[in-house]
Amino acid sequence: MAEIPFSLDQLRILKAIADEGSFKRAADSLYVSQPAISLQIQNLEKQLTVPLFDRGGRKAQLTEAGNLLLAYGEKIITLCQETCRAIEDLQNLQGGTLIVGASQTTGTYLLPRMIGLFHQKYPYVSVQLQVHSTRRTSWAVANGQVDLAIIGGEVPSELQDVLEIIPYAEDELALIIPSNHPFAEQETIAKDDLYHLNYITLDSQSTIRKVIDQVLTRSGINTNDLKVEMELNSIEAIKNAVLSGLGASFVSITAIEKELKMGVLHRAPIEGVEIRRTLSVIVNSNRYRSKAAEAFIKEILPQFSTENYNQSLEKLSQENQVFLEKTEVEIAEDV
Fold it and tell me: Which of its termini does the chain have fewer beta carbons within 10 Å around, N or C?
């Protein structure tokens, strides 16, 4: 076999430049000098005898060969990271890394509590939390960049046969208003009262916004007639806007537990309307699952789940055991 004309470090540099869009930002992200980055790329292009970047523009633009190398390079880096996690597992959770993904609300309010419990039990395992959109998180799990994730949206159709999607818990989306609002004196508010409120919402393309609109529409409420005062891009910004008296909003009940206890926000039940969505755990059963991931699934997730989760959890663990046994057989046959 011919000598491989690139190193892992060169692949990492190539990926950093592609991610950051420039040699300088890539150098900063890797804590090395820009000349060192440039030299590595020059050597890589010389070794491969093809240009990897189009140097005519202001932004670092990959050539066709550069994009091809990047696509394979990302797979190689992911497989190397997976190998390291498997070896670290031999130390019986005395080290290693667990990478958990989440969509915005679960990543901000639910996962930190879970990770805190996990860290108390396994203090030597490093835990990384990546919070992105449901789509981006799903792809990260599919590609092996994330061990498992909890999401509130729908997995992209092209990944539904690739990922194991486990219904995990019910998340209630509650209407909140300032505690001094006149409606706060009522036990419930009527559907017609919704038309008299000003709303602060997430972007219309957000998963939560879509769920809310669908449920309200099914309940006979014309969402087009609801007055949206402003759109914000974070739940914390929305809560602060409601606290400031700028309007009302629908948010996950997990996001307002502290404010409800303090009495600074009021949860206003709506007659005949209950908005809920299903949170799901997603994993890729065709990839190696570390002992840290298994421990998180078996010991932490059940503490926050609904009752129907346990059977799915047992099935998930059985599938992982079958995957491990199959891998051991394949390795033995290769040897």
Answer: N
Burial class (CB in 10 A: 0-12, 13-18, 19+), 42: exposed
Residue 152 three-state SS? coil
**Domain end position, chosen among 83, 112, 144:** 83
Tally of domains within the chain: 3
| Residue 285 and residue 154 share a domain | yes
Domain boundary among 67, 83, 99: 83
Whether residues 144 and 289 fall in one domain: yes
Q: What would the pLDDT profile of 127-145 be if each residue is shown by its tens digit? A: 999 999 899 999 999 999 9
How far is residue 62 CA from its own chain's centroid? 27
**Is the pTM higher than 0.85?**
no
Other beta carbons less than 10 A from residue 43's beta carbon = 14
Query: Bridge partners of 282?
Result: 149, 165
Instruction: Read off the amino acid at residue 321.
Output: Q
The span from the CA of 170 to the CA of 166, in Å, is 12
- Give me 139's structure tokens: 């792809």
> What's the pLDDT at 329?
41
Domain around 260: 170-277
pLDDT score of 121 more than 70: yes
Q: What is the pLDDT of residue 85?
A: 76
Task: Sort strands 276-283 and 265-267 into parallel, antiparallel or unpaired.
Answer: unpaired
DSSP sequence for 55-72: TTSSS-EE-HHHHHHHHH
